[in-house]
Amino acid sequence: MENNRQNCIASLMTAKTASAISNIQLAGSGAEEILKKIFKPLSQKSLVFSVGSILHGNIFNGDTLIDEVIIGCEGKDLFSINCHGNPLIVENILELLKKHGVKITEPQEILVFLGKQKHGDNTIAIEADIVMAQSVTLYGAKIIRHQTKMGLIQAANWWLENLNALEIDDIIVGAEEVLSDSEISKYFIRGAKIVIAGPPNSGKSTLFNYLCGKEKAIVTDIAGTTRDWLSAKIRLKKIQAEFFDTAGLDETLSEKNEIDAQSQAQAVELIKNADLVLYVVDSTNPAKVLAGLTESLNKLVVINKCDLAGDLFADGLKISAKTGSGIKELIGEIEQRLGVVDFDMKKTVCFTDRQTNILEQITEAKTKQQIKKLIQELLKGEIAV
């Protein structure tokens, strides 16, 4: 294998399932030479790749035709192969590239390659390009973009330039503030996880269905109908949230049978990992909030069935999941509890696990030398792919 091909990588950028068209990105030193060996244009006598050109032709494995494709030359050592979306065809093309010394990898590595071509060793800017494409809201994309112009990159460079004059505690406090603001910014970028929990037959599934705008969960008057959990991603006012409908919480059900015990365990696990718990209770039924389960969590007590006579609860947000009464107020309170209502989009935040890990290490650093090394890693460190 020639040395220049060892740096050539390729990845399927579209879904691995059957589709009309699939896209394979080929990047790195030696990519053009490989294409000249396996691709034959239909209309050109000589094969010439120039940036911006689009070529129509066939890919061959020796004398065997694999597929008719469109190849775009998107940059130096960067090509886009657009083929038919049959997974077998895609696999044959990838295997052919592998045969010619190409490393088949995940899309993330291609995106890092593109980022390095565009931004050099500016790791935060490279990460921003990758994560912005995955942001679930426009607000999230704006927050990320700010980190490459001012925000995180400005803070890191300022800490580095003024390291000798600053006290270690000043930098630690600054890092802690960034981490705190990042917890809220992640709702704009990745979305929030909200679990609908509460006693059996309190109307959790009815609320879930109302929020979804359609019936995804089975609703009956029989307590304990929901035994598994369902989820749906729903756009609120400012953020996207994934709501989870869970089995009714009842300590006695764990002792009833194995299925109910597993349902209870699943519900408890989802609650522990939620950003917010909507604890739904029936306004006509004085059900007890399970002790020790929700006290330490970010929770909002929701009093359901307020359209019925009787109200045994003084505290909580009153709604009717059946009629929709109070749902608008519920959504507003959800975003208030998550801290996104008045969040400043120009806050300095970290937006990847790599950045978060480095900031957490800075808060535990004992010397300026440690901090300097960590800040340099934050600015120019390698991205895990």
CATH class of the largest domain: Alpha Beta
From the 3D coordinates, which CATH architecture of the largest domain would you assign?
Answer: 3-Layer(aba) Sandwich
The number of strands is 13
In sequence order, what are the helices and strands, one letter per element?
A: EEHEEEEHEHHHHHEHEEHEEEHHH
Give me the number of helical elements: 12
**What portion of residues belong to β-strands?**
15-25%
The side-by-side strand order for the widest beta sheet comes to: 3-4-5-6-2-1-7
Rg, rounded, reads 27 Å
Could you give me the name of the CATH homologous superfamily of the largest domain? Answer: P-loop containing nucleotide triphosphate hydrolases
User: What structural class is derived from the secondary structure elements?
Assistant: alpha/beta
Our measurement of the CA-to-CA distance between the termini, rounded to an integer number of angstroms, reads: 24 Å
pLDDT below 50 for ≥5 consecutive residues: which ranges? Answer: 1-5, 216-226
Helix proportion:
25-40%
**Average pLDDT:** 87
Main β sheet profile: 7 strands, mixed
What would the principal axes of the Cα set say about the shape? globular
Kindly give the count of domains.
2
The CATH topology of the largest domain is: Rossmann fold
